[in-house]
Each structure stands twice: as structure tokens, then as C-alpha cells.
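P.,

For your records, the input lines for the assembly:
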Amino acid sequence: MQRFRYALLLAAGAGFFLFQAKPTSVYAASSAPAAQAKDGAIVANPGSIAYENHCAICHGVQREGILPAFPPLVGIQHQKTDQQIMDLIHTGKGRMPAFPKLQGPELTALVHFLESPALSVSDSAADEGAHSSAVHASPLVDAGKALFQQNCAFCHGRDAMGGETGPDLTRSKLVLADVKGDKISEVVRDGRPEKKMPAFNFSSQEVLGLAAYIHSQEAKAASMKGGRRGVDVADLQTGNAALGKEYFNGAGTCAKCHSATGDLAGIANRYEGLQLEMRMLYPRGVKSQVVVTLPSGTKLAGTLVYQDEFVIGMRAKDGTFHSWKTRNVKFHVDSPVDAHVELFPKYTDDDIHNLMAYIQTLR
Amino acid sequence: MKFSKIAFVVVASALVWSAFPSSLPAQNVDAATLLNPPADSWPSYHGDYTGKRHSKLTQITLKNVNQLTLAWAFQTERSPTIKSSPLLVDGVLYFTTPDNVWAVDARSGQLIWHYTYPPNKGDHIGQRGVAIYKGWIYFASPDAHLVCLNAKDGKVRWIVEVADVNKGYWTTEAPQIVGNHVIVGVGGDMDNLQTFIRAVDPETGKTQWQFDVTAPAGTPNTATGGTTWMAGTYDPELNLIYWGTGNPTPVLTGSTRPGDNLYTCSIVALNPDTGKLVWAFQPSPHDTHDWDAIEIPVLVDGPFRGKQRKMLMQASRNGYFFVLDRTNGKNLLTVPFGPVNWASKVDETGRPIPNPKKEPSPDGVLIAPDEGGLTNFRSPSFDPKTGLFLVDAHPSWSLYFAKPADGTYGWAGADYGLWGKGVLEAIDYQTGKIRWSHELGPGGSGAGVLTTDSGLTFTGDAHGNFLALDTANGKTLWHAGAGAYIASSPITYKLDGDQYVVTSGGGVLFAWKLPSTSR
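C-alpha cells returned:
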């Protein structure tokens, strides 16, 4: 009887474990009241019906895809032959299930439908209030746009022209210099940890789409000229250069570290507008120097690479990286850029505008 | 013999299956559990209804915390950063990232189930966690739906729409359970939208009541916005829920919305059974800097300058620390807890009044704090013994711009952060004076704060180090590198006699405990 009880407990335990340990991934697409159904202008032909029945749930009502998981199918004829498309439908791929029962006229109609031009999508929220039209430039741009709305719009704005925290990408020098994502992809994949931009694990195709969307917005913004939102060089010309010069040499204490004929000579040729003003107020990425004194008394000088309350790391002049526990060494960090931080509470807005006017004369 | 064997199997299986429901009694979190959470649980976003994020547990002490060691780590194997506060119920942890819910064994860190919401076009900016009630999990999706899952296996029970994603709404909030209500809020300040706090029936998902933060969109000379994206707190004696609301829209331009823009950037006290407004206090009247007042309204009972009070404290994104009498919303204290330059005065009701010269302008104005605020959604903690309110502060400076071409829809301007850093500030709640500060590094930390009765403060720094500090003086007692940005608030609980602290960095959840000597 004792043994029986024990066995029962064991069995119960095993059952419990089996039940609990079963990993379940639940896709509830069908039970979710999908919003896409509302704006789907479905043309009643056999191909579109087949598409709606079998494909739309993942690839979107209008073949726009639901990135990053499900690729858009608009323009598929440029990537695959009819036979390849039919094979893919029959065999499935990755998370895409196989549809072996799709045969004959239904299959032919579906493939024809897949190769037809895209309907123009009206994407209400995305374009509301913006100046953009609802006509889409290309499938790549559309795919990039969808990805952008989910992952980038919160910070960079729906139209990529700036939003919460993130800069206006249409005025970015990096975007300007980018060709087919060669520069953008790096930033997207590595992130910008120092500015709290996360890294995104997108495929090459997805990054291409993002870059295409950003460039399309760049072109759109450029065509807006004076009516364009965001900060133009012309917006930053309200100061008085003479007063700015006075501030530079006097109350602003700028001349303590900088010289109009030395380090700042020609600065206005190298930077302009908002970039120049932000750099004037706080130049990012300026390296600090550190001198570390080891317990032996030996001193090592180099560029500060890392510092928290536990570890200090620096790169010596020969390029070698060194690090120490902060409690084991003495060190002195020389960080002249901190003087900019001390100025923040002292500026009036006029001081800034005047200083900006003066700095712009340093050509 | 053979017969008895078969009989055994049959009986045993029958017993196993029938024993199932009763073998998981405690997933049945009810109102009583939520009112008095046992030490072996963390059953709601804040752990309890007060929002203090303070635990009575004392196994981990000032003396032994330096021995804290990794019990396990759980890898989501996905790039999104965990911004959720996990729940712990019956030895199971539940936590999220956008579109994802994980149930993980709190003893081993092994996966129990994983739910994936279907691909959708909602904003994937963050997900703060789930709520649990009577064996059901409540989860908000990026496309503004509320999902009810079976806590045992993650199977969908129902999904209801909270708001229309096509209009620009999204949801990131951890729902809050109060009585027989699942209380949900919405995000969406890229459009001029009316927002709300809504109570939903936990069984059916049907709306019970809705509190609208503003007048409907399109009402002349009024604001929209006021998003409700963080779980509030609850006082069962007063039967009031306290909820923070977000910034008005259009965000950086206030020309089309003169006046205070009630009830945006406010703390509202609502009756949880009816949704009726009992009082409101507005930390940021007529905000033009995106400073949501959604930071945790922390409920504290204690003396305030000689008088026993029922208080509500908020370290607000706009840079001010507020103490209110939570019975009536009257202000007791308003003090900045870092650099703030946008207000011309604090009025007689305790509200900082914006200086019109510091509204975003075509040539730019210098503003402290930046748009991320002097603090953000990550939880502060209140330590009753020291009377300290500990908050992850973000001293920062930025430029704000707005011009006619920016329009009066959605963002309607531009702002650029110049510089910021992270500092843990320990605020004396009776004076607002900062008793100690602990530097957290350049840029700023995204870690929330947890305190325990043993005098410990858990948080994280800007470099991705988890930190344990002495609550009395802010000295570091223990640290461990997460290897990634920390963007959640720690929790603690006791399981099998061990006190655990659970933190996250990047997409990894870490469970910490003292080394076991007995096993």
C-alpha cells in the first residue's frame, strides 16, 4: 500500500511535470479581430479569393506582408518564376505551411493574382496629418515603411522627420551619404548604444526596405522646402554676432579653452545649422584623457575608454587597452568637455542665439 | 498480477488527471491575494497596491549581499529589451516583450510556455508586463488589444479590441486588477487622439466603465492625448485607484489647446467600480514638452510634518517631486529633484506653472530636463524605515523647437537632447531634500528601484551593472554586469526558503540568491 501510494505520487508528479513543461507557442491570428480586414478592397476573382483564404492571414490582405515575420509578396514575380512560386506553395518553407491541395485552376489563378500590380493602400494613421500622399512608390518602400512604423516611428516620427528622442532622419548626413542601405544598415544592426538606440536584427532585405523608405522620405522632405517641418539653418539666425562674441570672450568663458583663430577657425565651414548649434552646446564623443598611477608608483597615460564605479579602462598611446579595478589604482581623468555641462544652467536663450550667430562667422 | 498492474495504471492515470486542477491551487490569484500578497509571490506590477516596490523580506542583508550569486538566467533569444516587471505566482514567473509572453519556472529558469501574439502593425515601443487573476493572464498587444490567456498553458481565452490601431493607438501597459475589474490604458501621442482608462470584465472582456481623459478629438480649443500607459495604484480603504495620465496632443505646440488641458499630465483618483473622477491633481498644466505624469503614484501612510497622513508621492517626468494628501488630492509638497528651468513659479495649489518663454520656439529654447524627463516609467521605491523616496533621476538638457510648418497634429515640433546622466536620488519625503545621490553614469540608467526591510536598495547603472546599495547612505555593496541596457524594475520573493531578486538586462532575465549551503 505504501509503495502504491508512492507510485501514485510519482505518476502525479510526472504528469504534472509533463503538463507544465510543454512549451506552447500559440498563434491566435484567426481569433484576433484583425484590423486589416477593414481596409481590404478585395476584387472578387478566383485568384484573390484563393489568396484571401490561404495567404492573407500572414502576408496581409493586400500582399503588403507583416514584417518582420512575414514577407510582402507584391513584386514576387521579379524574384521567382511561376514554377518556383507554385513549388513554394506546395512545399512550404520555414514557418510557412505547405498547401499541397492547391491545384489546377485555383493555383493558376492564385499565381496570376500574386503577379498582378499592387492596389494602392490607404494607410490612415500613418499618413494622417502628414503631407504625404497615399500612393506608394514601390513594394520595397512599402515593406520598409511597415517595418519603420513598428520599430522606428516612436523615436524618429512616422515620416522619419523626427519624433520623440530620435533625430530627423531626412536631414541626417549619414542618410544623405547612404547608398542602398550601406550606411543605414550599420546603424540599424549595431544600434547607437551611447544614444540609447537599440540594435535591430533585421535581414538584409528588411534593411534595404527601411533604407528605401527613409530615402523616399528624404526626397519628400527636400521637395517641401520652406514649408518643411523641423529645424532649418534659416531658423537659427535670430542672434546678434557682436553680443555673441562678447559672450564668448566674457561671461561665457568659452575663450578659456577655445580660440576663434585656433581650434575653432573655420568651424562654420565644417558644420552648419542645428548640428553646429548642438556641437557648440555639447560636443558629443569627445575623448577624455586619464593618468593612472599603479601601486608601484608607475604612471600610465592614455585615452579613457571605459569608466564605471568598479573598473577603469584606457587605451595607451601605442594602442594597447588596459583596465584596472578602480580600488586598486589611483587615477585622474581630464575631461575639459565637462565645462559645457557647467554652462547649461547659466545660459539664457538669447546667449545661445547670440553665440550661435558669432560661431557662424568663424569661416 | 497482470490485472492488478493494469488496474494500477488506470487508477493512477485517472488520479493524476483528476488531481490536476487541485495541484495548481495558487494560480487562482484572487482579490484577497492581491490585497495581501504572500511573501512567495509578486502578483501584480508593483508587487502590491501601494506602488512602494518595497519588500518585507530580510534574508538578503547588508552583510551578506556581497555573496549574492546567479541562480539562473533566462534568455529570450530575441533582441527587444525587457521593459516588463515580472509577476511571480505559484513558483511561475510571467514576463513580456512586445508580442511575447513567457511563463518560466522560478526555481530553474526553464520555459513552461511561450505565447506569441500574431504579427501586427502596432507600435512595438515596449511592453510593461501582464496581470493575473483567477488563473488567467491579461496582456496588452502593440495593436491595442487585450489578450486573456490561460495561466497554465498560455492558450488564448479571448482577445478584445481596446482601441483602433488604425487611428494610431497602441498599448504597452501592464493591466492592473482591482476587485472584479481589469484596468487598462492606451498609448498613442503621434496623433491627436482622445484617450481613456477602461475597466474590463475579467471573464468576458466586456467594458465595465471608461474614463475619458479629454474631450473628444475635434472639440475646439481643447487638447487631446493624456495617454494612460502605466499601471496605477489602489487604496482599498478609500476605494480609489490612482492613475497618471500622459502629455496633451499636439505635443510640442500648445496654440490650439489653450488653458490647463485637463486631465492630461495629471494624477486622477477614480472610483474603481464606476470610473467616476473623485479628484485630480495636475503636475504639468499645459505641457508642451512631452512630460507624461504617468510615473508611479506611490501610496504611503505616515507622518508629514507632525501629522499622520494618507499620502501619494510622485517623482514626475517634468522634474518635480510631489506629495499629495490622497484622500482629497490637496498638495503638501512640490520640490524639483534635479535641474528644472521651465516653470515660472509654483502656484498656491502646488502646481508648477510653465513659463511661456520656455515653450518650444522656431529658434529653439534650452530646456531641463530633456524630453525623456528627469525620470520616466521605471519604478521608484519608498523605504519606510528611512523615509526615503528613491528615484532613478536623469539630469539633462535639451533644445525644443516648434514653428508654424510643424503644424498642430501629433508631434508638431522637434526636440534634441544635448546631454544627460543618471543619478539615483534619495529624497526625504517631508522636505524634498536630497539626502544622498549615487551617480549612475553618462546618458542615464533605465533601471527601476526596489528596497527591502533589511536596508537594501536594488537598481542598475548606465553601464548595465546591477547594483545593491545601502539604503541609508547609497554605498555600493554588490554589483554584477548584465552586459546590456537595463530597462526594468527589480522584484523579490521567497521560494523554498530562499529570497530571490529578479532583474533583467537586454533580453535576459536574471534570478539572484544567496549561495545554498544545505543543498
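Two observations worth noting. DSSP finds two helices and 39 strands in chain B. The helical segments of chain B are 2-23, 31-35.

Regards
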